[in-house]
Amino acid sequence: MKTKLKIVKIGGNLIDDAEVLATLLKDFSAIKEPKILIHGGGKIATATSKKLGIESKLVEGRRITSAEDLEVITMVYAGLLNKNIVAQLQANNCNALGLSGADANCVQANLRHKEPVDYGFVGDVNHINSAIIQQLLTAQLTPVFCAISHDGKGQLLNTNADTVTAEIAIAMSKYYEVELMYCFEKNGVLENVEDENSVIPKINTAKYEALKANQQIHQGMLPKMQNCFYALKNGVANVVIGSSKLLQSNSTLFTQLSL
Amino acid sequence: MKTKLKIVKIGGNLIDDAEVLATLLKDFSAIKEPKILIHGGGKIATATSKKLGIESKLVEGRRITSAEDLEVITMVYAGLLNKNIVAQLQANNCNALGLSGADANCVQANLRHKEPVDYGFVGDVNHINSAIIQQLLTAQLTPVFCAISHDGKGQLLNTNADTVTAEIAIAMSKYYEVELMYCFEKNGVLENVEDENSVIPKINTAKYEALKANQQIHQGMLPKMQNCFYALKNGVANVVIGSSKLLQSNSTLFTQLSL
Fold this sequence. Notes:
Chain A is of the alpha/beta class. Chain A contains 8 helices and 14 strands.
């Protein structure tokens, strides 16, 4: 039987609230199993860009990562956020190790095709170095990833944090029974987006298709759920979506996904 | 007999020149022995602070690290510089792993006493986690440190890069025969600071005391040399000071220190 591994993704909105983040990191540190944390960005990157006078570029409503944006992202995600999260985890006796995808060649990606839309310095994951991540876990370390990858040729790339999380979870399933936990600003997948208590406890593929057909799933939720089912289809044992409270051992309010 | 370990410190001035840095990282990657890189800051932190409208504070001519300065240092040193250096090393087939002192609890420090001068968020190293650094080296990884430490209670601290280097070198001497290489903008310790070719090839303790007595050592050089002798007295096998060319196997222009 494989050892259990918990992989926790925390969204940017949770990082923006220092108190929520502190509690979340304390709960995460209390997890006894081997574990990995992956964090998003939050508002601080946008705020820093603004202070530096960098204008964000949108093409067809989607954000483009310019060379200047990539610099800010690297500073804020891999520097400010990642290192402060690591320092806080250390204070909670969790031996955290902060990583970008370039570190130990953990997450390699291809620059996204420039057609039909040139997204700039954005990467699509092509390889997870699962062997080295396992070695770090075996050394009792807790990897803490920001969502920056590299192309192996010296270029850092901005990468979607939910996707990186799914790819890492899939790759680590070779060695572990992986539970994937997406923590974000809502209590789970909601039946009614206005009602925080309308969490759908379980969603399987059939239910997901029905919810999609009825347009009951909030736009921002769709790619997140796609990632969840992608992970389940590729070897991840268990996937749940919920709020920061998901990490508390007595948590009951969340959405569990299954095939 | 202990395995050899090369520890290379590169100063901020070398980082500011992209071409010099690229060559240096290529030469570093070509080192076959286990190795560690430690990098300074360079002008980009000051430039970023300026762009963000943060004024640097000086007390008695010495720079103070305010909370805002620490944020910028964390962004630039641990984020922008560290990750770009790691990505470049990866491109040279060196399996680099970027670290701050908080990562894997590698470098723990105490906040410097606030008397007689309050330097702000500055740390003095109190512990190097040499066991974990050895584990990383054994896993064929090349640690790349920026000079940020942590206090173990959640606070990151700005730390002198030359001092962190000496402390890491001393701690690693338990496991390895350590050669410490300080690379900076000059060819070595100069007899005449105006003449790049006046490199003193060898300096022992007696010579160092004589140079100091004659006020022949440039002010900025004194703490660097103190670190070198401190390292030698505490188990480091060999210490050399030179330019970025120090890493080229046929380099002959440098200063070698001995007790």
